[in-house]
Design a protein that fits this description.
The complex is a heterodimer.
Chain A (H helix, E strand, L loop, with lengths): L6 H4 L3 H7 L11 E6 L30 E3 L6 E3 L3 H4 L5 E7 L7 H10 L12 H9 L9 E4 L18 E3 L17 H17 L3 H17 L2 H4 L9 H7 L2 H15 L3 E5 L20 H21 L6 E6 L21 E7 L6 E3 L1 E2 L6 E3 L4 H11 L7 E4 L2 E4 L13
Parallel strand pairs in A: 1-7, 1-8, 4-10, 5-6, 5-7
Antiparallel strand pairs in A: 2-3, 4-9, 8-9, 11-12, 13-14
Chain B lengths: L5 E3 L12 H7 L25 H6 L21 E6 L19 E5 L3 E2 L5 E3 L3 E3 L5 E11 L2 E9 L3 E5 L2 E6 L33 E9 L2 E11 L2 E2 L2 E2 L7 E6 L7 E2 L11 H29 L1 H16 L16 H8 L11 H12 L18 H6 L16 H7 L15 H12 L22 H13 L5 H9 L5 H10 L3 H13 L18 H9 L4 H10 L21 H14 L18 H12 L3 E2 L8 H4 L17 E2 L20 H10 L4 H16 L18 H13 L4 H9 L2 H4 L23 H12 L48 H12 L20 H8 L1 H6 L7 H7 L4 H13 L5 H11 L32 H16 L9 H16 L8
Helix pairs in contact in B: 6-9, 10-12, 10-13, 12-22, 13-14, 15-19, 16-17, 17-19, 20-21, 20-22, 24-25, 29-30
Classes of the chains: A alpha/beta, B alpha+beta.
């Protein structure tokens, strides 16, 4: 039963009224988000929104590169390289009608999908991870709220929300988190000697209030560099069966993400950028497309492994899984058989998070170039993520004294809100 | 694969007594026995004396390009004459010219080695571009011994070398842009001609020949085409490493071809020291060129100074307060005069309550358009009430509108946005209203702080050095400072520091934030600007007057891509670039915050949209249109069901003419109406009558040195009141009087007692009355630069570029050079998340910088950084890669050399404290460290081991051109691993003892004391 309701917070979009009003049943919010980032632009007609097969040449017939297969959801088909995902399709929703109209340049579109906003020059907007870290905080003491397995850049940063909403990152599962894993030349004994020396020097020259505040942050940092936090990164704790169910390095990153959300990390972004599989990663211009199927299969294993593992551990409903990308790719082929960029219609996928999944949402035309039904803008997609995590999409963040709506007029996709 | 040099026989020798080149050329038929560079393709060479058709194809026009007619008499003695030729090349094709172009500029060089050209400057000394492509010719008479010598030509652009008119070496035009699909160059494909041969850096092509010379003077001419056409754009006008080197017969010792009779080894070491010397020389050449430009402008500048003087003469003098206990320095007199402020009200609530109203309510409830007709910015206004009647009833204050709105939980709650007032704040206001709302200066309630005595000499030196040049003082600087007479040593230190060119490296950081300098090394689409940091740096090096700096910025002329103020005009993918720049200029130069006015009228009677867009139109020099994408739509304004807090007075699509609307700051009529818009704007900003400009600058400098501005926040004076209005006015006048010279203002402040006071450890922030400074945390750049400096290690990172072989078009890729100081870094721009595009060493330093508040991408202007402690700050220093580099005793670390000296342990400990903390250790500290370092100290030195000597191999390089090659990912990940591991420690110290010394250094580096001012 709701206690004191802040009416102003509830006013706003009609969708929000539906969520908060008496009509819909109360939905438990998700506790964490795992955000899989397919950098480069995942081609939707070759993955989650298959169309008639084309012939792979610039002058020939455009279309999917691979035939499609049925899934456990009647009427929903996916590319033949996603068989495992097809087998659990009822737990996912491929949102096929995502679209934007910005220039199809990687950095710019990446920024749009991460922040939900156009760059203004007036303010640096925060990423979705920082927004969630800022509004929900970490789920446990002594873990960061937001972690990134990938490279830092401004689109993933906190913008005006400030350093507290920033991420801790690592670039691969062998390395530990930057700043919290000790160098190889410093074992536990040496770390202890160093910390003892540091504590002694700090006591010798206390230096007053500002230094004491810094020292306090330092003590917490040194605690986090110890086994308590770092054990989450030890994937060898997992059984071989579980590890192999996730597949290769990208899958192991997803497994690490599961462990981190179990430890209380609120938002983990996992980038799929291992371009040595096919040279270009998801950005399959020219010859890059030749081994695209290897990437898709890797995604298939990792995504299905993650969803099934989350479910087995009883946390699928409380963990929202997002598969995001900066734009899609056109059905036409380029001069060497690859594909260019396309923002007018592409797919991003949602799983878990207590949403009402239906395999697919939204309809594109037969070519896969235009949205025909139920278009979902990037702000709408953000609003859906926020609503799943129990963050009011009508919320206003504060940049000093300036209120900034948490999305740019986005509304959660009603069909998915359970 | 070995490369066989091609041999040509020299069949001609110079006539003995004459250097008449025209006769020469008339006599000798041209031999075109040239082989192509094979370094990339690995083709075997073909002996040929006839022109090779492949050559003609790869070097279009080369076979028809006659050799230059060199006037040997005009060549400088024992120097290379470099000529930059701006005409003669095809404007849209990569082609050799039809005839040797004439030089437009010329200058002498030491050797046939071109890696950097003197900058071109225009106007008052701003960088400008030369035409692209640019033809460059270097000529000299070189005395060569007889013999069969080898000659190497290495170059980025199409080049050729002639000896006495005979073409002996060429390189082709650069290859096309592979779009990332190139391949890694395997080590075996690198030219390798001696044990210490310098492998070709990325993006250069080369050729080697053997030539038999008869001995004697030879006319050498190197010609190269810099830059070039690339599709619809150009390549960057960089010479790469364009070098002619030679190895005398019978040797493998390669040296630069140089007429001066000196031998500059063309090895990695030799090249590095040659570059260092040339960079120093070219810096001086550039500085002198800038000075000439300003000299040419000196009449206009003199005119301005005269106008400034006339204005000053017409102002009433600002009376200096009486001399007090803190002495006669005007700053101290002004500050001390306000220490006697008593609480003007009854009880301590008054000051706090007014300060609370100021921070939470004034935004909407002040000025002529206060919301609800209620002004809260004076006692009279508060008592007068607003549209709903009286705000409070003195008899029962809790019952009035003000308190009930503060306590409301409905949608009429005040403040309407953001967090509600805390309970303690609400009670404070209730108490204060109950007492009759006595008004007080907020300052009167500043907590009682004792005036601290001056800090000690070494503390002063550390503070002044960090504040001026951004690093701690070196041991040498400490020694000479302490040797100066005590009475004058501080003033002398200030003078020395203000003359140190490193002040530019420290001062630039605040400007980069304030002006939102935001270059991008890869496809700039994120509100990026050009790299006008180079203009900023040169302005600071030259101690350019602030009014001239502002004028140059507003004019936005010069080079857009390579460091002129024109780069400021750029805001990629921004829907209204000039509005963005208007916000920047208003904040930085006028203390007016216009960012709200971008999308709606500023709330609470603030500046309407038209103020910003009229300013934007002045910058644009014509009408601007308000974009729909930057306007709050009408339905959003009224969302929430209450009266909108903001208005939008300019409909999207409306057109705004250029006009100065900030008449409250300086009237538009102060400058001639006939001037062009940008010029008019510049004059309005910088005329002496614009006291706001001078005061905003003075406040910025004051805030930087004193830890707190006289006006806070420094970029929004509409909502702030100066804490010391007379001091602020006086400082503004002094700035004008000095010719807008920031250095003299810094000197003035640094010589005051207030600046030199010892810090009060109980303070979190500097006392608003400046009775004592707080121990402020160092800025991100000071932490990083300070640790590098104290460890004696130069910053050796990757080049700040993702196109190190110069293949891409200049619109998409620039290089920001080899960074030596933290400010030179930028965002690593790996939005694509490709491991092959990471810059691991730069990233390791960026991780530290960003943790401490630096921004790699500056999309919006900032006047303030967040200084509060975050867990990631000590974490990244303690465990991160940069921390590892600086706490490992490599052979290059200063502490290694110190430890190897024959000196007692306590001397070593003392020197460590001096280097890192600029003080001597206390007995307790010395004892603590001695306990750790005494064991094994006597036997610390060991015989150094020689590292394993395997074959010397070049590092495969990764650049945009080959980053999609899977081998590139492998290579880059190897670089990441090497960066993470750092250099190996020295083998000349016993490992156990060395490890303990490393622990000590780690503890000192990570001590909270290092990261804070003392």
């Amino acid at each position: 039963m709701e206690t004191k309701i802040d009416r102003r917070a509830l006013l706003g979009t009609a969708a929000m009224a539906a969520v908060a009003g008496a009509a819909a049943p109360a939905r438990r919010r998700a506790e964490a988000c795992i955000f899989l980032w397919l950098g480069g632009g995942m081609g939707q007609v070759d993955t989650f929104d298959p169309k008639a097969v084309g012939n792979g040449t610039r002058t020939g017939k455009p279309g999917s590169l691979y035939p499609s297969i049925p899934t456990t959801v009647p009427g929903v088909r996916v590319c033949e390289h996603l068989p495992k995902v097809a087998g659990i399709m009822e737990r996912l929703t491929a949102v096929r009608s995502v679209n934007h109209k910005v220039i199809d340049e990687h950095a710019f579109a990446t920024n749009l999908v991460h922040t939900g906003r156009m760059i203004s020059g007036n303010v640096t907007y925060p990423s979705i991870g920082s927004i969630i870290a800022h509004t929900r905080g970490a789920g446990a003491p002594d873990v960061p709220a937001y972690m990134l397995i990938g490279y830092p850049n401004v689109s993933r940063g906190p913008g005006f929300l400030g350093a507290k909403a920033n991420h801790v990152y690592l670039t691969d599962t062998e390395a530990g988190p930057s700043g919290f894993s000790r160098p190889a030349t410093v074992d536990a004994r040496r770390a202890s000697e160093r910390e003892g020396l540091l504590a002694g020097l700090s006591a010798d020259a206390p230096g007053g209030v500002p230094l004491a505040a810094y020292r306090q942050a330092q003590e917490q940092a040194l605690r986090l560099s110890g086994p308590g936090f770092l054990r989450h990164f030890n994937l060898k704790d997992e059984s071989a069966d579980v590890r192999s169910s996730y597949g290769g390095e990208f899958g192991q990153r997803c497994l690490l993400a599961r462990r981190l959300v179990e430890a209380g990390v609120r938002f983990v972004e996992v980038s799929h950028n291992l371009n040595f599989l096919n040279g270009t990663g998801w950005d399959v211009h020219n010859e890059g497309i030749r081994n695209q199927h290897l990437l898709i299969r890797e995604l298939d294993t990792a995504l299905s492994g993650l969803v099934i593992d989350l479910e087995r551990r009883g946390i699928l409903d409380s963990t929202l899984v997002v598969v995001a990308t900066e734009f899609g790719r056109p059905p036409e082929f380029d001069g060497r058989g690859g594909r260019g960029h396309q923002g007018s219609a592409f797919t991003m996928v949602l799983a878990g998070g207590g949403l009402r999944h239906k395999g697919a949402h939204g309809v594109t035309d037969d070519a896969g170039k235009k949205v025909l039904e139920a278009g979902v803008s990037i702000p709408d997609f953000h609003a859906t993520i926020l609503a799943s995590l129990g963050v009011n999409p009508a919320l206003e963040l504060m940049d000093a004294t300036r209120p900034v709506p948490v999305t740019d007029g986005g509304r959660p996709v009603e069909a998915l809100m359970g | 694969m070995t490369i066989r040099p091609q041999t040509i026989d020299w069949i001609h020798s110079l006539p003995p007594a004459s250097h008449d080149m025209k006769t020469l050329f008339a006599m000798v038929p041209l031999l075109l026995a040239v082989q192509m560079a094979w370094a990339q393709s690995g083709d075997s060479t073909k002996p040929a004396k006839a022109p090779d058709p492949k050559v003609a194809a790869k070097a279009p026009g080369l076979k028809d390009f006659p050799p230059a007619k060199v006037d040997a008499g005009a060549l400088p003695k024992a120097m290379v004459l470099v000529e930059l030729c701006e005409s003669g090349l095809s404007p849209d094709k990569n082609l050799w010219p039809e005839s040797p172009p004439a030089g437009s500029e010329q200058y002498p060089e030491r050797a046939f080695a071109l890696f950097r050209f003197p900058q071109r400057y225009i106007d008052t000394g701003i960088r400008a571009d030369r035409p692209n492509p640019l033809f460059v010719r270097a000529s000299a008479i070189v005395d060569l011994p007889p013999g069969k010598h080898r000659f190497l030509l290495r170059a980025r652009g199409a080049s050729r070398v002639t000896l006495d008119g005979k073409v002996v070496l060429t390189t082709p035009f650069p290859p096309a842009d592979s779009g990332g699909h190139g391949t890694i160059k395997p080590p075996g494909q690198y030219l390798n001609l001696s044990p210490d041969f310098r492998f070709a850096p990325p993006g250069n092509r080369e050729e080697v020949i053997e030539a038999r010379l008869p001995g004697g003077p030879v006319v050498v001419v190197l010609e190269t085409i810099v830059g070039g056409i690339l599709g619809k754009s150009r390549r960057r006008p960089e010479p790469g490493e364009t070098v002619v080197a030679w190895a005398p017969e019978g040797t493998s010792s390669w040296r630069l071809l140089s007429p001066a009779g000196e031998t500059v080894p063309y090895t990695d070491e030799g090249w590095e020291s040659y570059q260092a010397e040339r960079n120093t020389h070219l810096d001086a050449v550039d500085a002198s060129a800038r000075a000439s430009c300003r000299k040419a402008d000196s009449e206009a500048m003199a005119g301005k100074r005269q106008a400034d003087a006339r204005w000053l003469a017409g102002q009433a003098e600002i009376a200096l307060p009486a001399i007090g206990a803190t002495g006669g320095h005007p700053i101290d007199r002004f500050l001390e005069s306000r220490w006697n402020l008593g609480a003007a009200g009854q009880g301590s609530d008054a000051g706090e309550a007014v300060a609370l109203l100021e921070s939470k309510c004034f935004q909407c409830h002040s000025g002529t358009k206060a919301k609800g007709g209620l002004r809260l910015d004076s006692r009279q206004a508060l008592l007068a009430g607003g549209d709903s009647g009286a705000a409070f009833d003195q008899a029962a204050p809790a019952k009035g509108h003000l308190m009930s709105r503060l306590r409301s939980t409905g949608d009429d709650r005040m403040p309407p946005k953001g967090d509600p007032l805390k309970d303690s704040e609400v009670s404070l206001l209730a108490r204060w209203l109950g007492a009759g709302a006595p008004w007080a200066e907020p300052l009167a309630n500043a907590a009682k702080v004792a005036v601290t005595p001056p800090c000690d000499d070494l503390t002063f030196l550390r503070r002044a050095t960090f504040d001026t040049v951004g690093v701690p003082p070196s041991e040498g600087e400490v020694r000479s400072y302490l040797a100066w007479p005590a009475r004058t040593r501080r003033a002398k230190a200030v003078d020395r520091l203000l003359a140190d060119p490193r002040r530019a490296d420290r001062g630039i950081s605040a400007w980069l934030d304030l002006l939102a300098e935001n270059p991008n090394i890869l496809n700039p689409t994120l509100n990026n600007t050009g790299p006008f940091r180079w203009w900023l740096r040169e302005s600071l090096l030259d101690q350019k007057p602030l009014d001239l700096m502002a004028m140059e910025l507003v004019r936005m002329r010069g080079s857009e891509r390579y460091g002129g103020p024109a780069g400021f005009a750029v805001a990629s993918q921004n829907d209204s670039p000039m509005a963005t720049k208007g916000v920047v200029l208003a904040g930085a130069f006028l203390g007016v915050q216009l960012k709200c006015s971008r999308c709606h009228d500023a709330p609470g009677g603030g500046r309407p949209q038209e103020d910003l867009f009229a300013l934007a139109a002045m910058l644009a020099g014509k009408e601007v249109t308000v974009p729909a994408t930057s306007s709050v739509p009408a339905d959003k304004l009224h969302a929430g069901g209450r009266k909108a807090l903001i208005t939008v007075s300019l409909k999207p699509g409306s057109s705004v003419k250029p006009r100065w609307r900030l008449d409250d700051i300086v009237p538009a009529g102060s400058v001639e109406n006939s001037l062009a818009d940008r010029e008019k704007l510049g004059r309005l900003l910088t005329s002496a009558a614009n006291e706001r400009f001078a005061r905003v600058q003075a406040n910025r400098v004051w805030r930087d040195l004193m830890g707190r501005g006289l006006v806070e926040p420094p970029d929004d004076w509409d909502r702030a009141r100066p804490s010391h209005p007379e001091l602020l006015a006086w400082l503004g006048r002094e700035l004008v009087r000095s010719g807008y010279d920031e250095t003299s203002l810094r000197r003035l402040i640094m010589n005051s007692a207030a600046y030199q006071r010892g810090s009060d450890p109980s303070l979190v922030a500097t006392d608003p009355l400046y009775r004592a400074p707080a121990r402020r945390r160092l800025s991100a750049e000071q932490v990083v630069d300070g640790l590098f400096a104290a460890s004696g290690m130069p910053m050796r990172l990757e080049e700040v570029s993702l196109d190190i072989d110069g293949v891409r078009d200049q619109g998409n890729s620039i290089s920001l050079g080899n960074p030596g100081r933290a400010w030179m870094l930028t965002s690593t721009s790996n939005e694509r998340d490709r491991p092959s595009l990471s810059l691991p060493r730069i990233q390791a330093v960026c991780d530290v910088l960003e943790a401490f508040g630096w921004r790699g991408a500056r999309q919006d202007p900032r006047a303030t950084r967040d200084d509060s402690p975050e867990v990631i700050q000590p974490a990244i220093l303690a465990n991160g890669t940069m921390g590892l580099w600086l706490t490992t005793l490599t052979d290059g670390h200063a502490a290694t050399a110190m430890a190897l000296e024959d000196a007692p342990l306590d001397r070593l400990v003392e020197r460590l404290y001096l280097r890192y903390l600029t003080r001597k250790p206390t007995p307790a500290e010395a004892a603590r460290l001695a306990a750790v370092l005494s064991p094994g100290f006597e036997s610390r030195k060991v015989e150094g081991a020689r590292g394993p000597t395997g074959p010397r191999l070049p590092d495969p390089y990764v650049s945009w051109s080959n980053h999609l090659d899977p081998e590139a990912t492998v290579a880059r990940q190897a670089q990441e691993a090497r960066a993470k591991a750092g250099d190996p420690p020295t083998t000349r110290l016993e490992p156990g003892w060395r490890g303990r010394l490393e622990n000590v250094i780690w503890a000192i580096c990570n001590s909270p004391e290092f990261a804070h001012a003392r």
